[in-house]
Design goal:
The complex is a heterodimer of chains A (318) and B (215).
Chain A lengths: L16 H4 L2 H13 L20 E2 L12 H4 L15 H4 L9 E6 L5 E4 H6 L4 E8 L4 E11 H7 L8 E6 L7 H4 L9 E5 H5 L4 E6 L2 E2 L9 E3 L12 E7 L6 H5 L23 E4 L9 E2 L7 H4 L13
Parallel strand pairs in A: 1-4, 2-11, 5-12
Antiparallel strand pairs in A: 2-3, 4-5, 5-8, 6-7, 6-11, 8-9, 8-10, 12-13
Chain B lengths: L6 H22 L7 H30 L5 H26 L4 H10 L1 H18 L3 H7 L1 H7 L2 H13 L7 H31 L15
Classes of the chains: A alpha+beta (318), B mainly alpha (215).
Chain lengths: 318, 215
């Protein structure tokens, strides 16, 4: 006969073995957190295997030296829907609902419709694109994006010859995006646009990841644009709508301050912003007392893209 | 001697250095986020502006509370504003621009927001140089006039702050409100004194406004 001397432990209270097996990691992480208050809050306990392991590097990737550490680029984002503070967006953006994402494609195309992101991705080959990212605020990063050419998607919806501009719209989720909810500062949702030839350029990509992993929400998950020769605000995040238009649309920053943020927004050190210089940039991750980098025309992509602008006066079309 | 040293003086001057220690601690612990250089600019600039506000708050606080002891520390608070503004400037020149003068020159020429910062700094450095008693004696009645420029410095510093932002103006507006309040308070006191003097002095006699002018 078995005499029960103790109340048996209900199954619900039994520690999940997967948690138990992590105990050393957890204890180590706790100790590390106490020892190093500087450890980034986003740093994960164990370095998980990247989501994509055998990506090929695109021939468009630049040789820029070291990439900006992911802890820096994923905690320094201008995501005004969430916060005007670059480091606060990290946490706030986690509320974004990205499941079952779809993109509406409409306008001057033969095959308009609502496309599921999975269906779009199933037709594309992902590659790694190491690009320099230059913000209009005069800082820059080097980021290994995971994505595919925008042109490849555009071809699948068969644009008409009347399609001369491509307009992109960020998701509107006021319930989780505080600045959309209170209608702060900009006209929501965020809108950006490219000329058709800019959109078809091989350098222009749609990104779904960075550093071999799925794009963090604060960096524009699940789908964002990356146009490396333009200031960062052109590279719109969390895209839900792509429209093909006959005329150039109003874009968010251009509408907010037309004399400060042009439609083109090509990186150009000889056209200063009306209130600050664009001559140099602070490379994030570089140390104290290290010189700033001299900003290059078209962010260093001049060889590939200068022909798009022919003899346009870049001072006028800034 | 520049200052009268006593216990309160030591306590206050150490307190004024705490923001610097705090900043150094954050630098050592790598706790300044993704763009630590920008964080240093913001911290040192913020504290320069805060000390300017504190310096300007001394006289109104004395008037309101009737506690006379504070005026002794106004000079020190002003010098700390100068101290943090100097750190801010040195941070820009060396921590960020690594002392590359050609690049700094272009940056200053093309960045209008920096012009306002420089105006503020030039005023503050003039006030710091003329802050010792010797200078005060030498300058006589001009000293007061010169040191009233602290309001221009505060105004220029606030413009310097908001002129570089992309549109979110909460912080500069916060400082602007404080400065406007302090300036408004002085205007009120000045106006009231003038009226009182008018009432007290028999009609026909000239009023000298200078003597009622509180700084």
């Amino acid at each position: 006969m078995i005499i029960k001397t103790q109340k048996s432990i209900p199954a619900s209270e039994i520690t999940d073995p997967s948690v138990f097996q992590q105990r050393r990691t957890i204890i180590k992480a706790m100790a590390a957190t106490m020892l190093l208050p500087s450890v980034n809050t986003m740093a994960s306990v164990t370095k998980a295997k990247p989501h994509w392991t055998n990506l090929t590097n695109s021939e468009l990737s630049g040789q820029f030296g070291p990439e900006t550490p992911a802890e820096i680029s994923s905690n320094y984002t201008n995501y005004y829907e969430f916060s005007f503070n670059k480091e606060d967006s990290t946490e706030l953006a986690q509320n974004l609902q990205t499941d079952n994402w779809s993109v509406e494609m409409t306008g001057e195309i033969e095959k308009p419709g609502i496309y599921h992101l999975e269906d779009i991705l199933s037709q594309q080959t992902l590659q790694e694109y190491i690009y320099r990212f230059r913000c209009v605020e005069a800082w820059s990063m080097v980021i290994p994006w995971v994505g595919f050419p925008l042109s490849a998607v555009i071809k699948t919806v068969k644009p008409l010859s009347t399609a001369r501009f491509v307009k992109f719209t960020t998701v509107y989720q006021p319930e989780v995006m505080p600045k959309q909810r209170i209608n702060a500062m900009l006209d929501w949702p965020y809108v950006e646009a490219l000329r058709m030839d800019e959109a078809m350029h091989p350098l222009t990509i749609l990104a779904v990841g960075m550093y071999g992993d799925v794009l963090p929400k604060q960096n524009g998950a699940p789908l964002r644009l990356v146009v490396p020769w333009k200031y960062g605000f052109k590279s719109i995040k969390a895209i839900t709508k792509i429209e093909f238009l006959k005329r150039g649309p109003l874009t968010t920053w251009n509408q907010f301050a037309p004399d400060e943020y042009g439609f083109y927004a090509n990186v150009n050190p000889s056209v200063p912003h009306p209130r600050w210089s664009q001559f140099s940039e602070r490379q994030l991750g570089s140390g104290f007392f290290t010189p700033r980098r001299e900003t290059e025309l078209f962010n260093g992509y001049g060889e590939q893209v200068a022909s798009l602008y022919g003899d346009m006066d870049l001072r006028h079309f800034f | 001697m520049l200052f009268r040293i006593n216990n309160a003086w030591i306590v206050i001057s150490i307190t004024c250095l705490l923001p610097l220690f705090w900043l150094l601690l954050d630098i050592m612990n790598n706790n300044l986020g993704s763009n630590p250089i920008e964080a240093i600019h913001i911290r040192s600039g913020d504290w320069a502006l805060r000390f300017l506000c504190l310096t300007l708050a001394v006289t109104p606080l004395q008037t309101m509370t009737n506690w006379r002891g504070m005026a002794d520390y106004r000079q020190m608070l002003g010098l700390y504003a100068f101290f943090y503004a100097t750190l801010h400037l040195l941070g820009y020149l060396y921590v960020d621009h690594a002392g590359l003068w050609s690049m700094i020159g272009i940056d200053i020429l093309q960045s209008t927001y920096i012009w306002f910062g420089l105006v503020a700094y030039i005023i503050i450095i003039l006030l710091a140089i003329t802050s010792p008693k010797v200078a005060k004696k030498r300058l006589g009645k001009y000293w007061k006039k010169l040191h009233r420029f602290i309001y221009y410095a505060a105004g220029a510093a606030i413009i310097h702050y908001f002129w570089q932002l992309k549109g979110n103006l909460f912080q500069p507006l916060f400082y602007l409100t404080i400065i406007a309040f302090l300036l408004g308070f002085r205007a009120l006191v000045w106006f009231k004194n003038r009226q009182l003097t008018r009432l007290m002095i028999p009609k026909g006699k000239k009023i000298t406004e200078e003597s009622n002018d509180a700084v």
